[in-house]
Structure to design on (684 residues):
């Protein structure tokens, strides 16, 4: 088991003929992911290292049975690409694109909810998802992820930041702790998949025994997660929230990482998570150590 | 990107939102010319991106050219909470019957647009929210549907805006919403939105924050970025296309990834120091980017040590190390570096750094973030790295 993606996931890459799409798409295949198709309008019939290219997502799905899409196209084209995948019936869409305007993102989110409720969007501006040893969609370096063990305990990771996701994977690998699935939800203001969505999946996944969460300043996703943890998560958790020292009113690299009007501070999020019973570390290493303690305690 | 009031009003005008006749001025003579064109009486307003301009004496009424000269002379160069006034906005003074508040933002929790409307305008809305929350009407808008005139009018009714202002307010709300969406704003706010004795409704102030991600479809924003308030360090960083934010401390920071950079600030603080900046060089971390980052850090006279915090993912440790070595060869550093290199092939990377014959007093390496932060803080505080 794992969440969102596993060894049966069939992936198509929108933008496989572009620089980013080719680089990461082929890396994902090298990792063992079943990358079955690429989509680039006007380049149907070509191939990228043996992976067939189609003009549209619908054609790619009809021909290969793809169940997930990896969207690796520029910000201008990404909203339409996401909606095309959803309209073609793709159930899981990963968008790594950084720099999509917030207005477009809000529109896409609500269009998906209304017209394509069976399609889940992960991202945009996210590193993607990896179920170690089974499937890797996105830009995560697969070799940092520790394989899960049959008996466990295995840990699920969910994070808003790319490099801190790698850091978390690395901390667990150093400690020899297996990872069921590692999900990067992304650093934008309107992520398609939230912490709460991921926590619900991890709670239901028998292979996941504990969850590590990496948050950051801005918005209220961590506070919403804390509410959900209190009511609906029985598995032990550790967490880290980046940006304790971030100045107010500045976007800290991620479009969504901003403290405004005294709202969205790291301290507020840390307090909410602690009140929900989550062990919160003051840096990523501490959060990793706390998780090692949780795992050791069984 | 936050706009000045005058830019906000010019932006509003693009979306047919009524604003007072006026012009921007950078000298006393320009202020007089603007006043003559706008017709007296006029208001002379300091253009700074900080609240409390009126209390600081940055907003004055003038009835003739002599008064404009006097006020413009006093306000230009004035320091308002650390912001020096370089520009004035001079506009025709409006007769005011009532003052309202209106704004559009994205409600991130609801993932919908949010209209906030109040009949209590002209005051700090945060304060109204505290003391009289019922005076603010909140309306969520689905971005797919948009805002209809009927819904806008109903919001105005709910906010107890009087009958004679309803049509005018509803019309402005629809225009402001178009400005917010088509104009790619993070925030579009009018405070106060005024009702004149004539029954007209119009925007007496403008607070606009633009979504930088949408700049590719707004060539008209170029003039705004030219006046963006940046210090020297931030200006250079922008030229080099680096994600940089200037801070007050003495430990210069370079990290790959926004989350890791934020986290680096946190661990420096935990180690008892203060970061001089936030700087995310992204995933690549090649020699050119690293050199550009070091050059920007070098312009900051407060920097006493430089903490380079890199986690190798797809970009392997040895490539990062080669980039650092090459960059150090190109840039004369003002302070010693502490490098924490971890992740994929980190050991090889650290070996490359050690073999590069960079003098020990210039380079300290550590394997964990916290140890590296402690070393960087010790150096910044004039002690030996431990």
């Amino acid at each position: 088991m794992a969440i969102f993606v596993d060894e049966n996931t069939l992936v198509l890459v929108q933008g496989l003929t572009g620089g980013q799409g080719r680089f990461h798409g082929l890396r994902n295949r090298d990792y063992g992911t079943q990358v079955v198709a690429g989509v680039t309008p006007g380049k149907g019939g070509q191939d990228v290292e043996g992976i067939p290219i189609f003009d549209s997502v619908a054609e790619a799905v009809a021909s290969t049975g793809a169940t997930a899409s990896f969207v690796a196209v520029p910000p201008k084209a990404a909203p339409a690409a996401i909606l095309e995948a959803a309209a073609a019936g793709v159930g899981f869409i990963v968008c790594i694109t950084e720099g999509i305007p917030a207005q477009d993102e809000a529109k896409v989110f609500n269009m998906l909810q209304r017209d394509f409720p069976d399609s889940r969007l992960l991202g945009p501006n996210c590193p993607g998802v990896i179920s170690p040893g089974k499937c890797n969609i996105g830009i995560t370096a697969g070799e940092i992820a520790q394989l899960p063990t049959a008996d466990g305990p295995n840990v699920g990771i969910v994070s808003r930041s790319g490099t801190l996701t790698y850091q978390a994977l690395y901390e667990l690998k150093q400690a020899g702790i297996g990872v069921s699935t590692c999900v990067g939800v992304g650093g934008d203001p309107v992520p398609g998949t939230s912490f709460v969505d991921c926590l619900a999946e991890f709670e239901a996944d028998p292979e996941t025994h504990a969850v590590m969460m990496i948050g950051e300043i801005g918005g209220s996703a961590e506070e919403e997660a804390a509410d959900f943890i209190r009511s609906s998560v029985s598995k032990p958790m550790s967490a880290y929230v980046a940006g304790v020292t971030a100045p107010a009113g500045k976007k800290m690299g991620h479009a969504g990482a901003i403290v405004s009007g005294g709202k969205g501070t790291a301290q507020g999020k840390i307090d909410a998570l602690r009140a929900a019973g989550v062990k919160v570390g003051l840096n990523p290493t501490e959060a990793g150590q706390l998780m090692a303690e949780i795992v050791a305690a069984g | 990107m936050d706009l000045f009031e005058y830019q906000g009003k010019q932006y509003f005008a693009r979306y047919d939102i009524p604003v007072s006749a006026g012009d921007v001025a950078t000298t006393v003579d320009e202020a007089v010319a603007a006043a003559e064109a706008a017709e007296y009486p006029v208001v002379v307003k300091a253009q700074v991106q900080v609240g409390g301009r009126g209390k600081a004496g940055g907003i004055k009424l003038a009835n003739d050219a002599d008064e404009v000269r006097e006020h413009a002379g006093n306000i230009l160069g004035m320091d308002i909470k650390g912001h020096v006034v370089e520009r004035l906005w001079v506009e025709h003074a409006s007769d005011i019957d009532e003052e309202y508040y209106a704004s559009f933002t994205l409600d991130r929790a609801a993932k919908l647009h949010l209209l906030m409307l109040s009949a209590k305008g002209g005051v700090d809305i945060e304060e109204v929210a505290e003391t009289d929350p019922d005076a603010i009407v909140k309306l969520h808008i689905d971005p797919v549907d948009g805002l209809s005139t009927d819904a806008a009018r109903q919001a105005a009714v709910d906010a107890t805006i009087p009958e004679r202002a309803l049509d005018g307010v509803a019309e402005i709300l629809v225009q402001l919403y178009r400005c917010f969406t088509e104009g790619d704003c993070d925030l579009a706010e009018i405070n106060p939105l005024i009702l004149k004795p004539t029954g007209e409704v119009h925007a007496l102030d403008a607070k606009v924050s633009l979504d930088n991600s949408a700049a590719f479809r707004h060539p008209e924003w170029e003039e705004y970025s030219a006046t963006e308030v940046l210090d020297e360090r931030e200006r250079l960083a922008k030229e080099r296309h680096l994600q940089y934010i200037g801070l007050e401390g003495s430990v210069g920071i370079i990290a790959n990834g926004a989350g890791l950079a934020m986290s680096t600030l946190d661990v420096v603080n935990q180690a008892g120091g203060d970061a001089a900046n936030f700087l995310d060089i992204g995933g690549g971390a090649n020699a050119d980017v690293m050199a550009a980052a070091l050059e920007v850090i070098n312009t900051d006279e407060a920097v006493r040590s430089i903490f380079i915090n890199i986690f190798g993912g797809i970009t392997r440790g040895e490539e990062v190390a080669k980039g650092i070595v090459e960059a150090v060869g190109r840039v004369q550093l003002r302070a010693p570096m502490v490098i924490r290199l971890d992740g994929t092939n980190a050991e090889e990377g650290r070996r490359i750094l050690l073999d590069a014959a960079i003098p020990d007093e210039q380079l300290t390496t550590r394997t964990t973030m916290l140890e590296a932060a402690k070393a960087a803080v010790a150096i910044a505080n004039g002690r030996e790295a431990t």
